[in-house]
Design goal:
alpha/beta; Urease, subunit C, domain 1; TIM Barrel; 2 domains; eight-stranded mixed beta sheet; eight-stranded parallel beta sheet; 13 helices; about 30% helix; binds (4S)-2,6-dioxohexahydropyrimidine-4-carboxylic acid; binds zinc ion
Length: about 425
């Protein structure tokens, strides 16, 4: 797909928190770069003859969304997702960049896997792909991976996501070593001695359904450990997929004391609760599991007050082979790239956050935390732009999902708000207009 010479985005509501901008304006993109931003009634700069023009009355024009927690499954499980299909789904969901988790086959713990991902992305991706390397070799939690090598090959962060780093000394060394290499460390905070064999949140519902539960302390004990290690070393740590009220309390306190921590949650944790598991729907099974209404409310409060910095999907595609089976045997994870925008917009519609805060959570904050380009619509920057129609209603239908896997608990749900145009470096990667 080539980059059109010039694109004019007219009459949209430009929301760019990094530049403290929220106003109606036109944006001109030339050769993939934002070359002018001007008020609709202002005299236009001289416009190129060959111009692709979109009237975006009533739509939001925001910096390209960045999902810092995505499982693309390539290499190794291409029947679930590939770099091509996953980034196609990302573009359709309004994302211009994704950070891909290392729990592929083989694990991305060395330069050859990182390079392979970047080469495939170069050939086939519909969004920028930022590889995340493993913290430990094979994500086995024993010895550190070669961070220098991963960084040189193009990794932006390290994590053993999917599994915790149970050894605290290894976590401490990972933080120290990663900070020397300017790599972000992302923690999957879980005490597996408490969560092992669990299939859902532990409580009345798990007992009544006869499923082994995962207590909320399985997350909180490790969040506490992780915060202590970040505080002690002074090295930045990013906490993935936060799901419980007490985790939020711990992070809030730690941030107040100046602990160098950032945190993300996923749309399912502020949208659903463990109630969704009733009926044994394996599309409501993920790790960490859906929690209680009190936890959901605490996550929303944390999104409001800045305790949570990022909304990331934890897009985790699985096929029917791993999902259309007994609940306790089914794989953890749900897809999320194509539903993040409407689910996040619900927070705006309910008055929990304003539009600018939403854009921070989905674009400028992940860009800053990952240390990558994007997250803003300044002049001269590459045109990574997402246009959202906040009014569009739709029912999510399985046949419309672009991800190779269809494991979403939102199939059949009425949703509101949709990405209608996505530009990545000026290239049109998604267009419903
Ligand atoms: O639900 C999850 N799915 N949680 C994880 O930590 C891993 C992920 C996956 O890779 O499927
Ligand atoms: Zn994950």
């Amino acid at each position: 797909m080539s980059v059109p010479q010039a694109i004019l985005l007219k009459n949209g509501r430009i929301i760019d928190p990094a530049n403290k901008l929220d106003k109606k304006a036109n944006i001109l993109v030339e050769k993939g770069i934002i070359s002018a931003i001007f008020a609709p009634r202002q005299k236009a700069p001289s416009l190129p003859k060959k111009l692709l023009s979109f009237d975006l009355q009533g739509k939001w024009v925001v910096p390209g969304l960045i999902d810092m927690h995505v499982h693309l499954r390539e290499p190794g499980e291409e029947y679930k997702e590939t770099i091509e299909s996953g980034t196609r789904a990302a573009a359709a969901g309004g994302f211009t960049a994704v950070a891909c988790m290392p729990n592929t086959m083989p694990v991305n713990d060395c330069q050859s896997v990182t390079r392979l991902i970047l080469e495939k992305a170069e050939e086939s991706a519909f969004a920028r792909v930022y590889p995340v390397g493993a913290i430990s070799k094979g994500s086995q939690g024993k010895t550190l991976a070669e961070f220098g090598e991963l960084k040189t090959a193009g990794a932006v962060a390290v994590t053993d996501d999917g599994k915790p780093v149970s050894d605290s000394q290894l976590m401490r060394r990972a933080l120290e070593y990663a900070s020397n290499h300017k790599l972000l460390v992302i923690s999957h905070s879980e005490d597996s001695s408490l969560s092992r064999h669990g299939a859902m949140n532990e409580g009345f519902i798990s007992t009544s359904m006869g499923l082994k539960g995962i207590p909320h302390i399985a997350e909180e004990i490790m969040v506490f450990r992780d915060l202590a290690v970040a505080d002690y070393t002074g090295c930045h740590l990013h906490l993935a997929h936060i799901s419980t009220r007490e985790s939020i309390n711990l992070i809030r306190q730690a941030k107040k004391k100046g602990c160098p921590v950032t945190a993300e949650t996923a749309p399912h944790y502020f949208t659903l609760t463990e109630e969704a598991v009733k009926g044994y729907d394996t599309n409501a099974k993920m790790n960490p599991p859906l929690r209680t209404e009190k936890d959901r409310e605490a996550i929303i409060a944390a999104i409001k007050d800045g305790t949570i910095d990022v909304i990331a999907t934890d897009h985790a595609p699985h096929s029917v082979l791993e999902k259309d089976i007994e609940f306790d045997k089914a794989a953890n994870g749900i897809i999320g790239l194509e539903t993040a925008v409407p689910l996040a917009l619900a927070l705006f519609r309910k008055g929990h956050v304003d539009a600018s805060r939403l854009v921070e959570l989905l674009s400028s904050n992940p860009a800053r935390i990952l240390g990558v380009t994007g997250g803003t619509l300044g002049l001269g920057v590459e045109a990574d732009i997402t246009v959202i129609d906040p009014e569009q209603h739709f029912v999510l239908r399985e046949q419309d999902i672009l991800s190779k896997s269809k494991n979403s608990p939102f199939i059949g749900s009425k949703l509101q708000g949709k990405a209608v145009l996505t530009l990545c470096g000026g290239r049109i990667t998604h267009n419903l207009l």
